[in-house]
Design goal:
The complex is a heterodimer of chains A (about 230) and B (about 775).
Chain A (H helix, E strand, L loop, with lengths): L5 H31 L19 E2 L6 H30 L6 E8 L2 E5 L16 E3 L5 E10 L2 E9 L4 E7 L6 E3 L4 E2 L8 E5 L7 E7 L12 E6 L1
Parallel strand pairs in A: 2-7, 6-12
Antiparallel strand pairs in A: 2-3, 4-5, 5-6, 7-10, 8-9, 8-11, 11-12
Chain B lengths: L7 H16 L30 E5 L10 E9 L13 E7 L3 E4 L4 E3 L5 E3 L15 E7 L6 E9 L10 E9 L9 H28 L9 H9 L4 H30 L9 H36 L7 H23 L23 H29 L12 H32 L15 H33 L6 H14 L15 H13 L1 H14 L9 H20 L5 H7 L3 H31 L5 H27 L22 H33 L35 E2 L10 H10 L11
Antiparallel strand pairs in B: 1-2, 2-7, 3-6, 3-8, 4-7, 5-6, 8-9
Classes of the chains: A alpha+beta (about 230), B alpha+beta (about 775).
Chain lengths: ~230, ~775
């Protein structure tokens, strides 16, 4: 398993490529100029190239073409990067109408999951909030507990290739569940409903730790849960 | 000697303040003193404890049984209670237990949200309630291990409906085994702050001692030497105070970082409790930004701006001193909570609704109050600098002939001025919420959970540029002077500064990509944030091209400037990962963010300011700094700095969340951080200690060079701006007001100055009679 989802890694590789190019240009430029144009005798008072005198505004040193070049070229790069960062937005924010909804309620300092089982459909499990089935009778959401470093934490089990919508809110202050393996997070706000959408892929089968990533007080760092994707 | 105490009014004010400090804590029955939360504590009647009232706490066992339940009888005798036959009430109590659980047995007693117990009924109308008693009963369940401490306050009231004439007293009790007092992190930290204060005092005394020469050393001269600085309105002395203040808190903030780096050195460490860790990272952030970076920048601005503009002093010297003296007062308020174990634990961003919830530490109230003082300080300083820029430029110096450090300060001041009111308003709302019960951020009362984030980041993002722009200014001066070349593209540098200044206000939404803010706003701020790279890129490429055809002289300040180019460019590039929303959803609140902003704050701002210290130190003190020690400082500092922050990028991508007391390594049961994360964290902790130590070299260099350094000429580096015209150290007033320097030009310059923009500013800001730049 790897932290971060597919979209993250796609963008991250692209960004790394361009970052490396920019950084290499800057480093080569810097080392070349700072070594080639260094003062030969190392004296501060050496013959002044532009003949500075205190209180005298020095003669101009500019080149409009060069300045325009490094305004326009980075701008084009920015436009390109924005364009490729734009596409995935749709995938993240567009709600799948068939998504199974899972309730996430944050509290100081524990997570509360709710499979939101449909009572009519799941007569067999009526009154049992912690399991939900799809139309074929397969389990698509199940909640139990797991031991994390000696503390009992909630375990949320979801099915691969099933799309989910997490309907999130908070009972007290701001929290944020971080789905480590999927590379997504969103704050939970009191008095507000926020949403996350995700369809776990078959690559994401396995358990991963879910941490709180919006500071929420004393036990913020141990406010965890485990999310398991099963086939 | 103590001349400030000659004034009787001063003594009276000090007296009242002291009295307030003594009286205020007695109104609370919590062991940690000032909290200001009256409704949850003992609303004690009277100004101080009274021996006439005798509180009694019965029912505590001699041998404590773990988990056992005990019925406690609370009563009191004495005082005015019962004297009045028509009394509306008889008395009240408040009981606090350090461990175990208090439960009420009848409705005469209620349990407060924090677990303490108090009587029911608050005024005369609720007859038959707990306040009509002098005896109460409470059930206490002992903790499973260890003993407990109790603090009981009882009020004896005369029942006239007011608290006048009432009396109260306090009783301490304890039961079972008491824990051995341990040297906790907070005690260590308090000692560290006092140690830093002692070191600073020692440095001052040493500088004074050496200054007068061993033969002429007399204590009688010490107070005049110190009070000269403490009461001065001269921009150079206030600037020095700002620098000492900034470097002092850089040390304090650094010690905070070292302490919590020890905690993070290995997973599952328990060097600090979660509570202590939360306070340390909160105060580390607040200290570094508001008490270290901002004062250091104000220190540079104070020292250099009037000298560069050819002005005798700043426009409003007394306001300048006021702006400085608000800083130490604010620092005291910000740290108040730490000394009682209840320091602010909200993160430097202080997100609502946590900051107004009752789970946040009581120290957060003082922390907010301290920041309000800093807002006042920044506003006052801003007025002063803007007036100076508009009215006190030397004759002949138009807007487009100002040195770039001055330009950067002008843009930074403007940005601060436009952004800081939002922060001030937010802070005042939080303070009101925390003290008098308003509900600006109380969601249950109709408050908006996102309002604070908007107000804070509307200020917070420009604030980042406010601190980084002056560092840009320093680098522009240093590279140009060292390369013996005019800065490449002076005009585009100014426009890039202004561009950053404008863009800085429309990008703040990228801090809130995961906050549940409207997707449209997220998308818009994604576009604008990407654009910031363009003006910043112009600046970096202009700096690089400045060296072209020059004759670069390697000095310590040149090395720091080149180091800045590397680290700031890295910080800038890593910043480009966040505006892509899909990437930010993974990187938000991870160590990647921590790595990014430390590359900008330390690699950008602190490196830039170090460069400035080496560059202007000869001007300020008249002594050259030791280059050999300076190079050692650069090499150790640059390497250890990168060892601290570079691995954090990797940790962030692996998903290590920031602001967490510990971290979890992958087990057979679940996936979390890879095992190597523990090694990286250990490396970071070791390197952090190295980085801290390397900065002590700078302090040593400043003091020893300041005392024994070679004498500096007026223009040691061959710079062109006006600070190099005056002697080193500069006289007072800095430029002779009756013979101001006149800006000259190496080549015929555009007579169109001031241009349209310059005329607009002058028309807006300067009365017709006194035209900018010309001395009346």
């Amino acid at each position: 398993m790897e932290a971060g989802g597919d979209i993250f890694h796609m963008l991250f590789d692209e960004w790394n490529f361009w970052a490396a190019i920019v950084m290499i240009i800057v480093l080569i430029w810097m080392f070349h100029h700072s070594l080639k144009y260094r003062s030969k005798d190392g004296k501060s008072r050496a013959e002044s190239c532009d003949d500075f005198k205190p209180g005298v505004f020095p003669k101009e040193n500019d080149n409009l073409k060069m300045e325009l070049t490094w305004t326009i070229v980075p701008f084009i790069l920015i436009v390109y990067l924005t364009y490729i960062a734009w596409g995935p937005l749709d995938e993240m924010w567009s709600a799948d109408p068939d998504a199974h909804e899972i309730g996430v309620t944050a509290n100081q300092w524990f997570w509360d999951f709710d499979c939101m089982a449909d009572d009519e459909q799941d007569n067999a499990t009526l009154g049992q909030q912690n399991v939900a089935y799809n139309t074929d009778g397969e389990v698509i959401c199940e909640i139990s507990t797991i031991d994390v470093e000696g503390e009992t934490k909630p375990l949320l089990r979801v099915k691969a290739q099933q799309s989910y919508a997490f309907i999130m809110t908070s009972n007290d202050v701001t929290h944020a569940p971080f789905f480590l393996d999927w590379g997504i997070k969103e704050d939970t706000q009191p008095g507000m409903e926020t949403r996350l959408h995700h369809t776990p892929s078959l690559d994401e089968v396995g358990s991963s730790l879910l941490m709180c990533t919006e500071y929420c007080g004393k036990q913020h760092s141990t406010m965890s849960a485990v999310v398991e994707v099963f086939e | 000697m103590l001349s400030i105490f000659k004034n009787q009014r001063t003594i009276a004010i000090f007296g009242i303040l002291l009295l307030a400090l003594i009286v205020a804590p007695s109104a609370q029955s919590y062991p940690y003193g000032v909290s200001g939360v009256q409704d949850a504590g003992c609303t004690c009647h009277g100004q101080s404890t009274s021996a006439e009232v005798v509180p009694v706490l019965e029912g505590l066992p001699t041998e404590l049984e773990a988990g056992g339940t005990y019925l406690l009888n609370i009563s009191f005798t004495g005082g005015p209670s019962g004297d009045n036959p028509e009394a509306l009430a008889l008395g009240g109590f408040h009981l606090w237990a350090s461990a175990g659980t208090l439960m009420n047995v009848d409705e005469m007693v209620k349990i407060n949200p924090d677990g303490s117990a108090t009587h029911n009924g608050i005024d005369a109308t609720d007859s038959g309630q707990g306040n009509d008693q002098t005896e109460w009963q409470v059930e206490w369940t002992a903790p499973m291990d260890g003993g407990a401490k109790f603090i009981l306050h009882t009020n004896s009231v005369n029942g006239d409906g007011t608290s006048g004439g009432d009396m109260y007293n306090r009783l301490n009790a304890e039961v079972g085994p008491q824990p051995v007092e341990q040297a906790r992190g907070l005690t260590v930290l308090a000692s560290a702050i006092f140690l830093m204060a002692a070191i600073t005092f020692g440095c001052v005394a040493w500088v004074f001692y050496r200054r007068s020469g061993p033969g002429a050393f007399e204590w009688e001269k010490f107070w005049p030497f110190v009070s000269d600085y403490l009461t001065s309105t001269d921009h150079k002395k206030v600037g020095t105070l700002y620098m000492i203040n900034g470097l002092f808190f850089l040390g304090v903030g650094g010690i905070f970082a070292l302490i919590f780096r020890l905690q993070l050195a290995s997973p599952g460490n328990d060097f600090l409790t979660q509570d202590e860790y939360n306070q340390f990272f909160t105060l580390h952030g607040t200290t570094m930004i508001f008490l270290a970076a901002m004062p250091m920048i104000a220190g540079f601005a104070n020292w250099i701006v009037p000298l560069q503009l050819g002005a005798p002093d700043l426009a409003l010297p007394r306001l300048n001193a006021l702006a400085f003296w608000l800083n130490p007062a604010a620092a005291l308020l910000i740290f108040t909570g730490v000394f009682s174990g209840q320091g602010a634990d909200t993160g430097w961003t202080g997100y609502a609704p946590y900051v107004v919830s009752n789970t946040a530490h009581s120290g957060a109230t003082m922390w907010v109050a301290g920041q309000i003082l800093l807002v006042a300080s920044s506003t006052v300083a801003g007025i002063n600098f803007m007036t100076t820029f508009c009215t006190m430029r030397a004759p002949g110096m138009g807007w487009m002939q100002m040195p770039l450090f001055s330009w950067s300060m002008l843009i930074a001041t403007l940005m601060l001025f436009i952004s800081i009111p939002a922060f001030g308003i937010g802070l005042i709302q939080v303070l009101l919420d925390r003290t008098i019960g308003t509900v600006f951020y109380e969601v249950a009362g109709g408050g908006d959970p996102l309002l604070w984030s908007h107000l804070f980041w509307y200020f917070g993002h420009p604030e980042v540029y406010v601190v980084v722009l002056p560092a840009f200014g320093v680098i522009s001066e240093v590279l140009s002077t060292s390369a013996r070349r005019t800065i490449f593209g002076y005009k585009s540098m100014v426009f890039a500064l202004a561009g950053i200044g404008i863009l800085g206000f429309i990008v703040y939404g990228h801090h809130m990509f995961t906050s549940g803010m409207s997707p449209v706003l997220r998308f818009v701020t994604m576009l604008t944030t990407m654009l910031v790279a363009v003006p910043t890129g112009i600046k970096v490429f202009n700096w690089l091209q400045t060296m072209h055809g020059g004759s670069l002289v390697y000095r310590t300040h040149t090395l720091w400037a080149l180091g800045f180019l590397v680290t700031f460019t890295l910080g800038g590039i890593s910043g480009m990962y966040f505006p892509a929303v899909a990437m930010d959803l993974h990187l938000h609140e991870t160590y990647f963010v921590v790595a990014h902003f430390h590359y900008v704050f330390v690699g950008g701002i602190i490196f830039g300011l170090y460069s400035g210290i080496y560059y202007w130190f000869p001007k300020a003190t008249g002594k050259m700094m030791n280059e050999r020690v300076g190079v050692i400082h650069f090499i150790t500092g640059f390497i250890s700095y990168n060892l601290v922050f570079w691995p954090m990028h990797r940790l962030g991508i692996q998903g290590m969340p920031r602001r967490q007391h510990t971290y979890f390594i992958t087990t057979d049961e679940y996936f979390a951080l890879p095992a190597e994360a523990a090694d990286w964290n250990m490396l970071i902790t070791i390197a952090a200690f190295m980085f801290f130590a390397s900065n002590l070299i700078l302090v040593y260099n400043m003091i020893s060079s300041g005392l024994r350094g070679q004498k500096a000429p007026n223009d040691p580096w061959g710079g062109w701006s006006m600070e190099w015209m005056v002697s080193s150290p500069p006289p007072t007033p800095s430029h002779n007001p009756s013979d101001l320097p006149v800006q000259e030009f190496a080549e015929i310059h555009d007579e169109g100055e001031p241009g349209l923009f310059g005329r607009l500013i002058e028309w807006m800001m300067i009365p017709e009679e006194s035209h900018g730049g010309e001395e009346e």
